[in-house]
Design brief:
Blueprint (H helix, E strand, L loop, with lengths): L2 H22 L4 H6 L1 H11 L14 E4 L8 H7 L39 H14 L6 E6 L6 H12 L5 E7 L17 H7 L3 E5 L5 H8 L11 E6 L22 H13 L6
Helix pairs in contact: 1-3, 1-9, 3-8, 5-6
């Protein structure tokens, strides 16, 4: 896909994610909107997988460590054929496997999440296994910047750096917000570059995590990268991207607008033109 096609795909994924959240009145839509372009570039330009076989052994692995953002993954899994489009409408319904937090019972999901801070450790295990098997598969882990306040994250960072897991790519969604406040007012993770490099990682910064071109550039050399170090990509994003009344409001974490606000959310997303001009 070219840049415009990827931007259109990201736009459609955001709208569809919002639709299923608004229909049920639940879901972490602000967290999904902050990583939509990242997820689009990963699934439609970077990662290797088999649309006909979710269990293909040679596939790259993706772990949604900031698992509350999982609602953005479901339209992707439907689009690539792992689940049906109609199945999306069961999101958060009684008995459905499509919950606010994704589980490995969903075709294409590699990780059962919930509590923050554990996804990177699981990713380290996957990368360690691939390294020992001399497999070419890569492991991608998407974490939140507020999640990086967890001690378990730093234990995993230390492990990956020490063991030179060059097949591990950690993307940090740097939207600057936790569930109650901005992270700079709780436990700031800066200086992030110096910390990651100190633990034996390569660090790259994405100034605009909603810019398709910038994302494509930062991911362009992953398989040919001349380094034994794991890679961390810090992507600056906006929580609630594309919906002005959701931006810079940490207390809206985990809330889906309903009624007229829900209608406005969908209207604004459908009219959004970021990256589509």
């Amino acid at each position: 896909m070219n840049t415009k096609e990827l931007a259109i795909k990201a736009h459609k994924l955001k709208v569809r994610s919002a639709e299923i959240c608004v229909a049920r009145g639940v879901g972490h839509i602000t967290s999904a909107l902050s990583c939509a372009e990242i997820m689009t570039v990963l699934y439609y330009s970077v990662m290797r997988y088999d649309r006909q076989n979710p269990e293909w052994p040679g596939r790259d692995r993706f772990v949604m460590s900031k698992n509350h953002g999982s609602v953005i993954t479901y339209p992707i899994l439907a689009d690539i054929g792992y689940i049906t489009e109609a199945f999306l409408n069961t999101f958060e319904c009684d008995g459905s496997i499509l919950g606010a937090h994704s589980k490995i019972c969903v075709p294409g999901c590699e990780f059962s999440g919930g509590s923050l801070g554990i996804g990177l450790g699981v990713s380290c295990g996957m990368a360690w296994a691939a390294k020992n098997e001399k497999s070419e598969r890569l492991v991608f882990c998407l974490a939140g910047d507020s999640e990086c306040q967890e001690g378990s994250i730093w234990e995993s960072i230390m492990f990956a750096g020490f063991n030179k897991l060059r097949n591990l790519v950690m993307i940090i969604d740097r939207n600057g917000e936790g569930c109650t406040d901005f992270i700079e007012r709780t436990v700031d993770i800066e200086p992030l570059r110096e910390k990651m490099e100190g633990f034996g990682w390569e660090y790259r910064e994405v100034k605009d995590g909603h810019d398709i071109n910038e994302l494509l550039q930062v991911f362009s050399d992953l398989r040919e990268r001349d380094s034994a170090k794991p890679l961390c990509i810090g992507a600056r994003t906006i929580k609630g991207h594309g919906v002005p009344f959701l931006i810079n409001k940490p207390w809206l974490h985990g809330q889906t607008p309903s009624g007229k606000d829900g209608e406005l959310l969908l209207k604004l997303l459908k009219e959004e033109k970021y990256g589509l001009e």
